[in-house]
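Practice problem: predict the structure.
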Amino acid sequence: MTDRFLDLLRLRPLWIAGRFLTRLPFPDPGCVTPAEAGWAVPWYPFVGLLLGGLIALVAWTLGSTDPSVAAALTLLLWVWSTGGLHLDGLADSADAWVGGLASRERTLEIMKDPRSGPAAVTAIALVLIAKWAGLAALIAHGESWLLLWIPLLARTQLPLLLLTTPYARKRGMASDQVNQLPRRAAWMAGVLVLAGCPLSLGWIGGLTGVLMGLALVLGSLLILLLARRSMLARIAGFTGDTAGALVEITETLLLLATALLAIPF
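Answer:
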């Protein structure tokens, strides 16, 4: 057990997680074994933290420009930095949920189809519009620093989903992560983020910050609960596409909630 924990502390799992989830210049880990793919999962939240820091920094830097333009540029960076990975999962999941007609086999089959239908295009458009609006609101009111926590909480959903939900396919993109997942380390990563978010916001913003942090944590857990329930009812588990959709939905809803909570009426 000690050797496995030391493996986690080495940075190679972080490089694997970073290269998988983003386009950011993480070192190339080379060939990745199934065990290493599993050990990368507890690092997913940390990758989200780095991504959130980059997005918040860019939004703050552009804060003196027109909020709409600043939001558009920030959103472009946001999408580019993830390589559209989670948007692809959202698109496939939207098509599958609409076209699957409550059939597990048909839903899984549609998610394998690389083509995008009307549901996919609509879902992506709505998510990007909502993110742009949330970004513009936060930038206009000087609250760009709150963007730090949104990608962090969204990527914390991934280890929590893998810990609590069966994989819906025999083999697939996430099968190695599920089979080789270090459960204790993944739980520790998830609990650390969920507890640390209110505490860190409280340190910055006092009681108001604590309450906002609690709202964001509870909101992310509610999204996970509802998404997990839908996945189990439709396909008896999750896939890489539905995991990506969960990240996008979490980011979008938390961004809008943050804008509503942080900006006085």
